[in-house]
Each structure stands twice: as C-alpha cells, then as structure tokens.
Amino acid sequence: MKEFTEQEVEKIRSTEEQMDREGAFSDELLGIIYEKQLFKLFVPERFGGRMTSLPESVRIFEEASSINGSFGWLVTIGSGGGFFSGNMKNEVLDDVFLPRNAVIAGSGAPTGTAVKCEGGYRVTGQWKYCSGAEFATTFTANAMIEGSAGEEPEMWSFAFTEKQVEILRDWNTFGLKATGSHSIKVDDVFVPEERTFSIFESNGLVDEPVSSYPFMPFAQASFTAVMLGLGLRVMEEAGHYLDMLAEESAKKPVLRKVLDEQGERLETLRSTFYHTIDGNWDLHLEGESEQEQYDEVSEVCAGTAQGVREVAFALYPYLGMYAGAQDTPFNRVFRDLLTASQHELIGPY
C-alpha cells in the first residue's frame, strides 16, 4: 500500500526546483510529514507515534525518496530519532516526543566533551551533518566524558534544547540541498542528568521489537532504502528522456536497452535487500537472530548502495547534456543520489 497519494507526490515535486535553488525545506512539506506522523515512525503511540516495523519503515523511506531526495532523506533521518525513545530517561520522554512537530536532529560522532558537575554535565562541542537542524525541536549528540587522570574517557549521549544550540549554516553540497544538514555547536552548556542517555542501553520503558534491534543495521537499512528510492527516481527520469527522443533517433534503441538492463539490475538489488530485511526481521521477532545475521544485513546494505550508484553511473553517459544540465530533474536526483551515497554507514569502507 502506498504511503503517499498522487496529489501529495505532485505537491512535493512541484517544490523541487525551489528547494534545489534556495536550499530550504518548505513549511508545506513539513505539514505533510506532521500530518502523516512520519517523524514518529519509531515513537510509541502514547506519544502520538506510529511505531512501525523495520520492514514497513524502509519501504516508506524508499517511497519518500523516490518522490524527492531531500524529502526522503529528512523523513528517514527525522524518524530515526524516534529510536531514542527506547533509550532516553522517562522524565524527558513527554517533552521530547509528545509535541506534534517533535523531531530530533543530531550526530553520532563523539566530537564533544562533557565535564561532570552537580546535577548533570557541562558540554562543549561541535557536530557536523545534523539534517533537519532548521526545524528540529531537540538536538542529540555524543560527547566524551572527561574523567580523572589515567581513566579511559566514556562516551555518553546528550539531548539539547533548541535554545542551547547554535546552528552553523555550513551545509554546502551539490545534492540534498534542502535537508539543512548544518553543523551545530554548544559552548559550556549545562545538561541535566535526566537529559543524558546511552544509545547502547535500553530504558526498559519501550517494549517494541524495533527498540531491541541493533542500531547499526537499523541505520544502514534506513539509508539503503533512501538509495533505492533515489535509484527508482533515476530510472524514472532516464525514462522521461527516452520519451523525449524522436522515434527515428539512433539513440533510442540503445538507451532503451541500457534502461532495460539497469532496471533489471535495480530490481534484483531491491529484491535481495527486502528479502534480507524481511527474513532478518522475522528472526529478530523470534529471538533467533544472531550477530552473524545482523552482519549479513550490514553487508547487503553496503552492496546494495554500491549497486545503486553503479546503476546511476551506467545511465549517465547515455543521456547527453540533459544529464549534465543542473535544472533538469535527472540532474537533481543524480546529485541527490551521489550525496546520499557518501554517508559512511553505507560507504565502501
């Protein structure tokens, strides 16, 4: 079943050129996300969430990304913050997740430092690539806790309020322009104990299968679904270029053959990905998924993302300057795809 109506798809795509030109995500599109509770896919129902399964959510991410890259990326990243509803302390769950427009932006990189003080910590740091920073209601980031001399620093997670964070508007890539993936900065801000947590420890309050799913393959599956959605859009736009060619053009049969080949390859990648995710989720529900099976998910995700990149590159030479013109839909989605593919969790390393 489709998540988005044809009217919603049309509305989202009607803003693509403006988003690409201005690098801003519109309130109208945020309204669609809030209405569908897409930032709350992994939030319990008592906080207005949908609490979807991993197989269902990755299909939503793919569909959203096939409509528009920035839209799909923000739905994926924004909903991912709901995963922390199973980690954060009970005292802050209402504040962080209950508002209709609640969404977390942040970073997993431990590029901050924290000093223990009475009632909490004083945190200083700067974190890159915080997608959705311009409309986030909470910011999460990891910092290393400074200990006594000779002690090994410990990593901890912190939930900052909007007022505590300075947004450094430094997102300047050639794709996913409207994601607002800026850096954030805090300087010696106080974070009370109740707004600290560990992404590796359950709070025991959210008894849902997705909350006990390992974070790494969860994130990798999410980003890979974005790549698949962008791959579908690449194929769609390449097909539109084929339709524009004159019937007598010698290019047409050549491009049609390439499209058929790459379309088949993309469907094979999709089939393998969803077969792996669905199978592993079933094992997870039964309590029978071992680390080896979760590692398989990670491997399939990396291979799928690489395969989607190769599909896009295989099509590009056959589309002439249409592919290179920055104002064409193909060029926009091509840039979005390459930018998304640079995320380290689905990279080649």
Automatic annotation (TrEMBL):
Keyword Disulfide bond belongs to the record: no
Keyword Transcription: no
Keywords: Oxidoreductase
Any single Pfam family the record assigns to this protein: Acyl-CoA_dh_N
All copies of domain Acyl-CoA dehydrogenase/oxidase N-terminal, residue ranges: 3-80
Record domain Acyl-CoA dehydrogenase C-terminal: where: 246-346
Example of a GO MF term: acyl-CoA dehydrogenase activity
Record's protein name: Acyl-CoA dehydrogenase
Organism per entry: Rossellomorea aquimaris
Taxon lineage: Bacteria, Bacillati, Bacillota, Bacilli, Bacillales
